[in-house]
Amino acid sequence: MLPDERSLALLGPALARHALAKHARWHFPSVSQHSGRTLLEPMQTETSSRASPVVEALGVRASGVLSLVGGLGVLLVDILRRVVRRDFDRNELFRNLHRMGIKSLPIVTVTALFTGGIMVIQAAPIVQRYGAYGLLGWGAGFGTLREIAPLLTALMINGRVGANNTAELGTMAVTEQIDALRALAIDPVGFLVAPRFLSIVVTLFLSTIFSDALALLGAAYAGAGFLGVEPGVFYRGLTTGLLGFGDVAHGLAKSVVFGAVIGLSSCHFGLSTSGGAPGVGRSVNATVVVSAAGIFVLDYLLSFALA
User: 20 to 30 A Cα–Cα from 273, which one of 5, 174, 213, 257?
Assistant: First the structure.
């Protein structure tokens, strides 16, 4: 507040001027520094510098990634808690195993057979140049068992099963069916999420074993057709000691991790869907992209960890 006239009169002319100057310096901006403002305009704090748009955008992206990782971690803990306590719907588990696993066999079969054939076609020039026909089985089997079969099978399951799972859960979320389950005292994680998560992991694990066998079968007959290598010679190249159970286990371990990534991301984005039908489409798109990116990143890390 400004000093009143009575107080100024008691102070005297010199002290009054000093009090007014001090009051103006602390409570009002100076005209020279803040042109265009009146003396009665309150002081406003101004930032000397602002963060660049690039830094702000990176901060927003980093915050989004951390939020996504945190949400996936919380959901994983919830699922594991139900699995350990066996607090999930077993009928839903078997129904999803049939729907996700058995009905995915056609696309897995086609992918595996042509994958084996492609491995032989790529190896054919080197095999013919050096006459290493006996090593064709090892060359095709090494890359197929450890890397190609688990990776391509995971991408196929991601596109078919992961996207479909997100669409179903997202539709249930936007139509308030998830809220209805909670209103009926039914745990959505135990009834819907945990069985689907387990089904995706088991489906990808078994599909990888199936695709390994079919890829080697396709490679053997592609070798017979393109290079004249008999299937018996091809399979002897697999069993001469250059390949072992560790190579098969390497790919199967990756398939379990890939299945967990697909199951987590599809359930997370499905449950967090909002905005009606467009929101369901955005969630499906996010599931496919995040799962594929996670598969490649974890494939890189697991290749070092399991070497």
Answer: 257
